[in-house]
Write a structure and sequence with these properties.
With 187 residues, this protein is mainly α. It has two domains: 1-116; 117-187, no CATH class. The protein is 61% helix and 0% strand. The chain contains ten helices and no strands. The chain has helices spanning 3-8, 13-17, 25-34, 39-59, 68-78, 92-100, 108-111, 118-133, 138-156, 168-181. The radius of gyration is 20 Å and the shape is elongated. It starts with a helix and ends in a 6-residue tail after the last helix. The model has no long low-confidence stretch (mean pLDDT 84). The structure holds zinc ion (ZN). The site of zinc ion has 6 residues, from α4. Residues 51, 55, 78, 82, 84, 88 line the site of zinc ion.
Length: 187
Amino acid sequence: MSIDAFLAHLARRDWLTQGPLSSLTASYVEALQIYHYRGSTIRAYLRCLAHFSYWMKGEGLTPSSIDRELIEHFMRNHLPICTCPPPRRSVVGEMRAALHHLLPLLPAADGAPAEMDPVEAELDRFGDYLRHTCGLALLTCSYRVRHVAAFLTGRFGRGTPEIELLAATDIDDFLNGLAVRWQPASR
Ligand SMILES: [Zn+2]
């Protein structure tokens, strides 16, 4: 189902489309679909997200303000005294789950330190290549970058990765190390 189809079901879609989360909504739905969430769950989470977006707008917040602390602040300090106009979704457990799905989608560049270390710079370029040249979904990129991060750090530490020094045996060693550590249910 497309993002437009999901939004069509949402009574408060303007809270998303005209709010601070408008640029993240499509990626949000895409991420939940990658995880095979049911349409009914995605619609419920979007109602939660719309409520959070409405509150953020009232507080003058932008996506760069979002972190676990802000989500907890909203849950603990806003929901108990919420007077936002109905219909609004405020189921606590569902709200927390819905909002935590936002965290992996936040633009890393906003919070990135001014000076990246060499491994981070390499990973940044790799992530950019996956996203914009290969056209992969955000979550897929994030998994791949995480694995490559573990590989590069294991081989080069925090020093500059010298890609030309890498050999097939380095990859074999890394995969063998993973195979030893991972349980059958790991991903
Ligand atoms: Zn509210």
